[in-house]
Structure formats: C-alpha cells, structure tokens
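Re: your question about Ornithine carbamoyltransferase

S., sorry for the slow reply, the queue was backed up all week. Below is exactly what I fed in.
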Amino acid sequence: MKDLLTTADLSTADTGEVLRLAQCYAADPDHEPMLLHNRLVALHFTKPSTRTRVSTEAAVLRLGGSPTMLTGTDLQLGRGETIEDTARVLSSYAAAIIVRTSSDEDLTRFARAATVPVINALTDGHHPLQSLTDLLTLRQVFGDLDGRRIAYLGAGNNVAASLAQAAALCGVDITLATPAAYPPDPTAIATARRIAATTGSTVDWTDDPETAARGASAVYTDVWVSMGDPAEQAAARRAALTPYQVDETVLAAAAPDAVFLHCLPAHRGQEVTAEVIDGPRSVVFQQAANRQPVAQTVLTALLGGKLHGQRRDR
Ligand code: CP
Ligand code: NVA
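Result:
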C-alpha cells in the first residue's frame, strides 16, 4: 500500500496495526527509530488548517525529518503546471507528500503520478487521518471497542464519511443522523457497509437525532458549513441543521458513560453548545492531541511498508 487517500484503503488488519502503533506513539513519541532522518516531507495545502498542518509538521520533526509547506500559490500548479508533473517532481525531493485540497479526483491523480506515499490531509469527500484519530481516542477512553456505538449528528460531510469507514473497520456500530438535504456520501457509506458486513458491525442512517443518540457510547459532531461548502448556502444549511445541535439533552439520551467528540474547529452555539464541548464528557482536546501520534503512525507505517491495503470503491 503506497498511499492513504481514504480510510477504506486500509484493511481491517492494517487498521488494527495503525491503532496499536498510534497508541505506542501517544505514550512515547520516540517509540520507533527516526525513519525520516534528513528527509523532507512536502505538505501541499490549498485550504486552511490548524491541527492537521501542525500535528503533521510535529510528527515529521519527531521522526527526524523536515516538513515544508507549499500552499496553492507557492507552487507552479497555480500557474498551470499539471498535477502529474508536480507530483513527479516533488517525489524526487520528498519522502512523502501530504495533501489537503478540495477534489478527491485531483488527489487521486496526484497519488498516481507520485512515486512516494501521498496522504490525504482532508478533501471534500474524506478525512482519513481524523477518523483514525477518532477511533484511537475511543480506544484510549474505553479500552476496548466491543459493543460500542457512535452517534454522528450533523452534516453528512467528509468527517462523517471517514468516521463511518473507520468505525466499520474497527467493528464499531455507527448511526449517522443528518437532515435529508445533507446526507452522507452514498458511495462512502456503501463502502462502509460492505466493510461492516465483514466485521460484524452496522452503519445506519436516520434523519432523527434522538434515535441516533439514544444509548450511544460517543456523540460526535462537526461544523455545519465545511470549507468546501458554497458560502451562499451557509444560512440554509444552518437552518436545516439546527435540530441536530448536540446539547445537554442529546447527551443525556446517550449511554451513561458516553463521551463527546468533535474534530474541531468548533462553533459553540451552532453544532454544539458550550456546556457540552467544555463539559466533563468532552474529550475533544485529547482527540486533537492524538492527531500527532496518528500522523507519526501513518508516515511510519506507509514508509516502512507495514500496510497492505485493500482495493475498494471509495
Ligand atoms: N480537524 C482538523 O482537521 O482540523 P484542521 O482543519 O485545523 O486541520
Ligand atoms: N468538515 C470540515 C472539517 C474540518 C476539519 C471541513 O471540511 O471544513
């Protein structure tokens, strides 16, 4: 397996290995030898980022390498150089390329032309590094994921798609509650369901937030307006998503030991109340901190040939 473009690129065995190694890196950031000693890792981000950018840069430094950030305007891509030429050239300098961009198709073209690992740092369709972090956090909190169910309330976006795939790979049930107008991507959910059929878990969708939250071990939400969503539709999205806000009542319907998750950035008063995200059941800062061990793990595992992958539709 060369690249991590979607969570479903991983096999169930790969996912287990990633979570095991990430738990080691979370306990000791110097767990493995410095695989990137004197190597460059290119980050190409065309969208803003706090966590993904900085956790990845920290991960590269921990592994002995040096990160370089290349925004859309830094590269000749912005002046018409092709994705393929860019990917081939960067591959001759960098040990890996980490890309945050809008189009999944552009990312796939990038990965096909690159001769080094390409890692998806968020596209409009997927956010695999986040989803692995989410399952790592749940494993740290609960110890064992058996019999657990995640409730995702909000917009059917990139985070929801990758979370469903990661849950399925880990054999964890998930219920996504989104308005009918903003459903999760059907292809990503069909893939998650195919995986779930092999791990004995379920991937359910409803438009009823109460049904999703009832008895869940984790309640998860994300922004209502993603970076890839048209700004002119923001007001309509917020109106449709208001019934999906995670507040104390929603959390009270979940299991007594349930935790609250959010990939961040958060908007208090929109997708989550301040009482919930700043309350005792919120693990969002543990979750954010876990982005670094996951970035270290994915780099180590891809560069070290530890992942075998699974060919699937995305
Ligand atoms: N969760 C996440 O990916 O955050 P950033 O957009 O800040 O990287
Ligand atoms: N769904 C959000 C996630 C941000 C980390 C977005 O794409 O903007």
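Residues 234 and 281 are 29 Å apart (CA to CA). Residues 122, 157-159, 222-223, 226-228, 263 surround norvaline (ligand 2) (CB under 6 Å).

Happy to talk it through on Thursday.
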